[in-house]
């Protein structure tokens, strides 16, 4: 009867397997030179994350994002030896579909409503493309891949520790309302939540794998504790959803394709002890203890209560309105969309939330103008073609990795494949309710992990043949069409205006007559539903006024289709969101002055109202 191997002997054997060989360079300069590509990728990813910090002025954030994007492209161009010949790169189906989708997204720049906002979106696309190509095409071995993964996890841990310390020092874990405590170094809880949801499955998978030396596993487990506690504390429900999906997929894949050899039947009597003391159980138990002792549990219970009654959650109602606006924009231009940045500028016309187009062009945009659903916003900006290409790219990439997973031997590459596969699936579930993909930092890290996924799967298919991928392309095309058509049909069915009575839209005079030349006339747009509820009219109300008027103080002009001018101005009580028009009459103008306003309700139904003022001497 054979005995189980001594655990200390097994540990020494494992340490010997990872021990460095004699003669390896240990000089710091030599190490930096050997790792210049992964370190360059990490440096520019850090700059992209830094560009999301709101403490930096808008111009500085723009320079950081543009400089980091150029730097990623420089790292790609300066590489002298790629991981495979270029012809092999284009024989892999995910790369072909990805390239077509990227070129189409860049082409939508030319029919964008504003080139300045579209340029910012173009920089985001190029940042993701550069990160993907550097990770998939220039990183050649496990050492470089390990440096990138370790560096990205360290960046996430640094952000998590800063947010934990800031949250505890400013408000305390036991006090304060959620709305006062949901800020992060990256802006809001949604941005940092998405980043943590990307990194937590990575760290946890690395902590479970015996393909990594013991010191690396312990560091990965410690990083899992930091990232996991911050992920819980951030209280972002979309990030919770994405993280849970990723962890469930990771657990299934680790069970189905073990990262190390299973215990033998003779050792089965001790397997329950090993499972009880496994890193996964210890990390989960530590997170539960930290949540209870740290005082986060009451905050979590209040935040999670909205999941039980989602219809009573105000933020969900706002997101439904934003999603509805994206669907209405898509229905008006279903093929090509409105162009890059079109939703950010024009969404207020249908949602009456966020900022007016003039405010976006003058002061920039933020979370208030984002749809909080990447699929719908991307469809509104690039049309059905753009949405189909994005879904098809993700399907082909994940399908390519899924076919490679059974053919990979147990080890580092399988660990990377499982970690990135689960992370990407979780991210694709999360972006249905998160705005984080609209920012360069999280977007670039997502595509970095996609590139690492392809680099790991490539080992199982060193000689690609495009003919073998044609069935996957066909299945992906059918899947993408079904997903897009089903989503649009469901959206139209849910927000069908039939049976909903029309509201009342009217213009109310704010200035009292009689009117004389040289005076200022003011009108306010009001909209009430059939139940009498008053809804915002700013942004989104289109004013049509005579061409002769002079601009009144505090108003911002904007040309309309009739070559006349429209004015949008928020009333002093900005919480109501009224839209007002101010006209200063010329000194010699008399007679009838007519103004007209056009408004669309949440179902896309158009209302029109007009008023006439009699100007006398």
TrEMBL record:
The keyword Ligase applies. It is found in: Membrane. Residues 223-391 form the O-antigen ligase-related domain. The chain crosses the membrane at residues 39-56, 62-83, 95-112, 118-139, 146-165, 185-206, 218-234, 240-259, 280-300, 384-403, 415-436, 442-460, 472-491. This is O-antigen ligase. It comes from Armatimonas rosea. One of its GO terms (cellular component) is membrane. It is a multi-pass membrane protein. Keywords: Ligase, Membrane, Transmembrane, Transmembrane helix. GO terms for molecular function: ligase activity.
């Amino acid at each position: 009867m054979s005995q189980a191997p001594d655990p200390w002997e097994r540990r020494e054997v494992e340490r010997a397997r990872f021990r460095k060989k004699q003669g390896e360079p240990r000089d710091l300069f030599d190490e930096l030179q050997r790792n210049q590509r992964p370190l360059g990728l990490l440096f520019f990813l850090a700059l992209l994350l830094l560009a999301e910090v709101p403490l930096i002025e808008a111009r500085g954030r723009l320079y950081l994002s543009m400089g980091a994007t150029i730097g990623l492209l420089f790292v790609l161009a300066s590489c002298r030896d790629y991981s495979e010949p270029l012809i092999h790169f284009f024989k892999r189906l995910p790369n072909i579909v990805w390239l077509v989708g990227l070129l189409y997204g860049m082409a939508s720049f030319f029919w964008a409503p504003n080139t300045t906002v579209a340029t910012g979106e173009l920089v985001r696309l190029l940042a993701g493309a550069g990160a993907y190509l550097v990770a998939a095409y220039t990183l050649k071995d496990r050492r470089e891949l390990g440096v990138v993964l370790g560096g990205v996890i360290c960046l996430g841990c640094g952000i998590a520790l800063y947010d934990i310390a800031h949250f505890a020092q400013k408000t305390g874990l036991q006090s304060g309302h959620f709305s006062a405590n949901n800020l992060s170094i990256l802006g809001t809880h949604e941005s940092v939540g998405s980043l943590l949801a990307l990194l937590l499955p990575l760290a946890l998978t690395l902590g479970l794998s015996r393909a990594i030396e013991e010191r690396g596993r312990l560091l990965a487990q410690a990083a899992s504790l930091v990232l996991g506690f911050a992920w819980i504390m951030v209280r972002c429900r979309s990030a919770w959803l994405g993280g849970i999906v990723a962890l469930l997929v990771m657990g299934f894949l680790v069970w189905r394709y073990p990262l190390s050899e299973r215990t033998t039947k003779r050792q089965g009597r001790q397997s329950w002890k090993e499972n009880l003391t496994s890193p996964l159980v210890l990390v989960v138990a530590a997170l539960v203890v930290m949540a209870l002792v740290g005082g986060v549990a009451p905050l979590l219970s209040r935040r999670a209560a909205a999941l039980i009654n989602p219809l009573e959650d105000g933020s969900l109602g706002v997101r439904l309105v934003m999603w509805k606006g994206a669907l209405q924009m898509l229905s008006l231009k279903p093929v090509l969309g409105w162009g890059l940045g079109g939703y950010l500028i024009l969404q207020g016309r249908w949602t009456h939330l966020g900022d007016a187009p003039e405010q976006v062009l003058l002061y920039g945009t933020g979370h208030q103008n984002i749809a909080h659903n990447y699929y719908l916003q991307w469809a509104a900006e690039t049309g059905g073609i753009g949405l189909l290409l994005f879904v098809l790219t993700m399907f082909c990439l994940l399908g390519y990795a899924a076919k490679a997973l059974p053919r990979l031997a147990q080890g580092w590459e399988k660990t990377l494949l499982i970690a990135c596969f689960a992370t990407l699936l979780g991210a694709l579930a999360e972006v249905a309710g998160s705005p984080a993909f609209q920012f360069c930092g999280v977007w670039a890290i997502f595509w970095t992990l996609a590139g690492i996924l392809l680099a790991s799967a490539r080992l199982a298919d060193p000689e690609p043949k495009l003919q073998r991928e044609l069935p996957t392309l066909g299945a992906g095309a059918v899947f993408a069409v079904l997903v897009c058509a089903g989503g649009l049909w469901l959206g139209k069915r849910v927000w069908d205006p039939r049976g909903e009575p029309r509201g009342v839209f009217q213009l109310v005079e704010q200035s009292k007559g009689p009117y004389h030349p040289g005076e200022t006339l003011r009108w306010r747009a009001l909209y009430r539903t059939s139940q009498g509820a008053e809804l915002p009219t700013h942004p989104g109300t289109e004013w049509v006024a005579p061409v002769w008027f002079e601009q009144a103080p505090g108003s911002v002009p904007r040309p309309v289709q009739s070559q006349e001018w429209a004015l949008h101005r928020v009333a002093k009580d900005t919480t109501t969101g009224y839209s007002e028009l101010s006209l200063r009459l010329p000194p010699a103008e008399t007679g009838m002055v007519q103004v007209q306003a056009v408004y669309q309700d949440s179902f896309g139904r158009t209302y029109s109202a007009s008023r006439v003022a009699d100007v006398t001497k």
